[in-house]
Amino acid sequence: MHIHKLDQHRPATGRWPRSLLVAALLSIGLLATYANPAKWLRASPEVINHSSLEDELEKPWDWASVSPSEDIEWHACYGGEFDCARLDVPLDWIDPSKEQRVVLAVLRYQAKTSVNYQGPIVVNPGGPGGSGVSFLKGHAKELQAIVGDNHDIISFDPRGIGASVPRIDCWGSTKERHDWELLDESVIDAYPGLLYEAYVRAQAFSEQCERYMNTSTPDLLRHVSTASHARDMLEISDRAGFPRLKYWGFSYGTILGGTFAAMFPDRVERLVSDGNVDYHDWFSLEQLNFIEDSDKIMEKFFTACAQVGLEKCPFALDSPDAIRTRYLGLLNRLRKSPVVIPAFANGTTPAMPELVTYAQFQLLIRSTIYKPLHGFPALARAMVALEQGDGLPFYNMANKQAPTLDFCALNNTSPLTPVTDDETSSWDAFPAIMCADGEPFTDTPDEFAAYVDALVAQSKYAGPSNVHFRLACAGRAVRPKYRAAGPWHDIKTHFPILFIGNVADNVTPLQSARNNSGKFPGSALLVQNSYGHCSLAAPSTCTAKVVRAYFQNGTLPEAGTECDQDYDFFQDPPANVLAEDQDAAALARAVAELSRNVDLQL
Asked: Could you name the domain of life of the organism this protein comes from (predicted)?
């Protein structure tokens, strides 16, 4: 394993339903050509490299305007609110060379005080394929309000993603990608025989992607496993001048954090693992238990709706059982009688008629249970409208969760060009990384059908819309050179890890947090009594206090500690927090803002 010496410098301070379709995960990412970036003279990380801050801020920000460097060289960017750097690292960490390189886009939000400066915390929003740059740009103030303003907050676009280059891109054409996705059906029981069509479609696309890559960039897919990302993160920490890592990872970010801790246990200063993907489930590619809590979330809808009644939940009936029966009746009705949304009925309807089908309804349910505290009221209204033949509330809700693609605005950006807008997550990267991490996919169609049956047995509400994760690996032949898949046992990190799990998480169940914590003796588990994906699915000032104490002074919660969410289903958020507790008020505002606006969907 190649590890650079530590740098000891310290810083001074379309079609609207398509964007809901998880079958986009069938796309497997390849890219075109490697960059051979120019090198800068090495400089201390303290230096912000621009001749005039005023001149710099007058220019439109463009990642391509910054030359890559093998040291982190910060440049004021995005209106001066952030610092940006482009870090040049080897494509292959096992056999590094000067020819094959990757350039990572790194973003920093600086600490607001030098008093008791605690260094940087690296955050990762998950995916894989999520843009850390975009995540930090949107939520830096709130994240810093939780961990403390004596921390810098750093994030980066992992190799192959967003503003990092080369970028994973299966198509080279946004139109071709869009056209391919138009043919997708993501709900495996939408009609008889779909499972076998989906299997062949996934296999064909995997093979096409690898052919595309083999003619343009033969080695990229061999170097996008999480082990490579973890080694990149170590390099970022080293080059920023901190030999040990502080980290907060969400969703897939828990796989990245766990991999880092397993590979470099002595380099862990603090590590929060929030919304835990089960290590064994991920690296074995079994992916069978990840939705075992999903039905608990829908059952919570039936219960909470019955409790609050029609005034706050228009779908309410006298009992949870009656609401469940009503829900299943609507689902079955949509199989036979989809609801038509007319074109141009008013200013909010689509440009052409749309159908609300059984499959589209299932996908909206799948999306809603990621953040049910926020989504259930709108879902109740949309379901009542669907019963009355009105699909517009459903349409508006779907577009709010996944906005309409502006087909006329589609641009083709070279994989060698850093993406500079906020649309920097990459669905192509998700299967590329997931399949590199997992064992080879060897299922026959009939064996995969048995897997589908087992998954649906885990969750009757979410099972049919979640089978495409594993299926995305059908037909893949390229295997990673660098893989750290375990099995992991009895790993002693320099400082204990803090694991966080919701009582019912639709894709990372609480049991996964327990399983992962068991790999790291001395780690702590905080249970948040909320529903949905990751702690940010519902605001919890209690959880924010635990996270802050952990980062500030290393305090771990006692065994059995639980935190409640700040308000319950179908309740209005609290208008004010007690003014006499200013610190708690700031935390409450931060977690409320993050919970409303952060999207951590797998």
From this structure: Eukaryota
